[in-house]
Amino acid sequence: VPFGMRDVAPDEKAPLVGEVFRSVATSYDVMNDLMSGGMHRVWKSVTVDRMNPQPGHHLIDVAGGTGDLAGSFLARADSREQRQRPQAEAIVCDINHAMLKAGMDRSRAGRVCGDAEALPFDDRQFTHYSIAFGIRNVTDRAAAFREAYRTLRFGGRLFVLEFSQPPQDWFRAIYDRYSDLVIPRLGEAVAGDRESYQYLVDSIRRFPGPDALAMEIRQAGFSRVKYERMTGGVCVLHMAAKV
Ligand code: SAM
């Protein structure tokens, strides 16, 4: 990646995002653990708690990458009493083949290559839609939320997990320093790719705050929109329902 995402015109953004993730797919999971100090596992686990997966549920995990969220969803649903209900199902949908392939053998979740802005699925297929650390990379968020609404059944729920900026000044100052000093260097040392991780830091700063994002979700037709900050606001989970 020769330049940071901030210099890129909107119509050039999509292919560049593809490049960014191809270059990091292999070391992706290791980097997640290193950068977040393992916290991304906790954030995803809380997300799965809120989803409350049960037999018969059907998840689409968009921008699902190597598919760990979908895998946990299925494991949780499968651990519940079946009571003659059908097995839960999950599909990992990602725009990048390499990411899908890297996680292929990790769970029984299906894998489909597709764009969050134009999902290759019929209307009203799913009980749960999730997008974890993916909405920040989507060019047209409104389109992605409309697609989430379209593909969810009535009664279905939306879960958006994404980095954010801590609201408390003192914590924000520490977080900003960590982002500037540690993340790009870690990216260079471990993945040999400083630019992708500088892009990560920049894109988190540009991303709308939780109230603005909640408004965008409402505008796509969702009800009961709420959010939960995690780890002092480093990460935020938005939840909403299609009623
Ligand atoms: N959800 C996974 C996780 O939490 O570990 C992966 C997150 S990774 C930071 C972002 C993913 O978004 C990448 O796998 C990338 O290929 C995918 N992505 C980016 N733009 C996308 C789009 N428009 N539609 C679908 N996936 C997209």
Automatic annotation (TrEMBL):
Pfam families documented for this protein: Ubie_methyltran (PF01209)
Catalytic reaction list: a 2-methoxy-6-(all-trans-polyprenyl)benzene-1,4-diol + S-adenosyl-L-methionine = a 5-methoxy-2-methyl-3-(all-trans-polyprenyl)benzene-1,4-diol + S-adenosyl-L-homocysteine + H(+); a 2-demethylmenaquinol + S-adenosyl-L-methionine = a menaquinol + S-adenosyl-L-homocysteine + H(+)
An MF annotation (GO) of this entry: methyltransferase activity
One BP term from GO: methylation
EC annotation from Swiss-Prot or TrEMBL: 2.1.1.163, 2.1.1.201
Keyword terms, alphabetized: Menaquinone biosynthesis, Methyltransferase, S-adenosyl-L-methionine, Transferase, Ubiquinone biosynthesis
Pathway annotation: Cofactor biosynthesis; ubiquinone biosynthesis; Quinol/quinone metabolism; menaquinone biosynthesis; menaquinol from 1,4-dihydroxy-2-naphthoate: step 2/2
PROSITE patterns: SAM_MT_UBIE, UBIE_1
SUPFAM superfamilies for the chain: S-adenosyl-L-methionine-dependent methyltransferases (SSF53335)
Superkingdom of source: Bacteria
Record: residues binding S-adenosyl-L-methionine: T66, D94, D115, A116
PANTHER family: 2-METHOXY-6-POLYPRENYL-1,4-BENZOQUINOL METHYLASE, MITOCHONDRIAL, METHYLTRANSFERASE
Similarity comment: Belongs to the class I-like SAM-binding methyltransferase superfamily. MenG/UbiE family.
Function: Methyltransferase required for the conversion of demethylmenaquinol (DMKH2) to menaquinol (MKH2) and the conversion of 2-polyprenyl-6-methoxy-1,4-benzoquinol (DDMQH2) to 2-polyprenyl-3-methyl-6-methoxy-1,4-benzoquinol (DMQH2).
Protein name: Ubiquinone/menaquinone biosynthesis C-methyltransferase UbiE
